[in-house]
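Handoff note, outgoing to incoming analyst
You'll be picking up this chain. Sequence as last confirmed:
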Amino acid sequence: MTNMGIPEILPVLLAIGIIAAIALSATKAARARTPNPLITPRTPAELEHHLQALVDQGKPILAIKILREHTGLSLKDAKTAVDGMRAGHRLIDHPAMARLPQPQPRAHQPDLATRVRRLKADGRAEQAVHLVIGETGMSQSEAQTFVQAL
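Most recent structure output, in case you need it:
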C-alpha cells in the first residue's frame, strides 16, 4: 500500500466538503418552505392559513394534529375538515367548526392607530412600537415606520 500525501487527499476532502455544503443548503431550504408547527395562530383565519399551507405541502397528518391541538376536535372531525380543505373547502365551513365554542367579544377598545397616537402623545413611542409589533407581527423597522407616520 502506498502512502497518500496531501496532494492525493486534498481532492477527496474537497469533494466531501462540497457534498456537505449541498446537503446543508438543501436542509435549510426545506425548513424555510415548511411552516413551523409550533407557531400558535392567534385567529381562526391564521389557523386556516397555516393548515392550508401544510395541506398544500402534502402534510395533511401534521395539519390534522395541529387542528386537533388548537380546537379539541375529534380525530374523525379533524380528518374530515382537513380532507375538505384538500378538496378546496374552507375550514370555517366545516360543520364541526360550528360546534366549537365561539370566542367572547372583547370589550370595546380603540383601534391600533388611536392607541399608538395616545402612547406617542405620552412620550412612550418605544412602547407604541412594541404594541404594533405584538398586534400585527410587523418587523421592528416596519413598526417604527408605522409609529412615525402617525
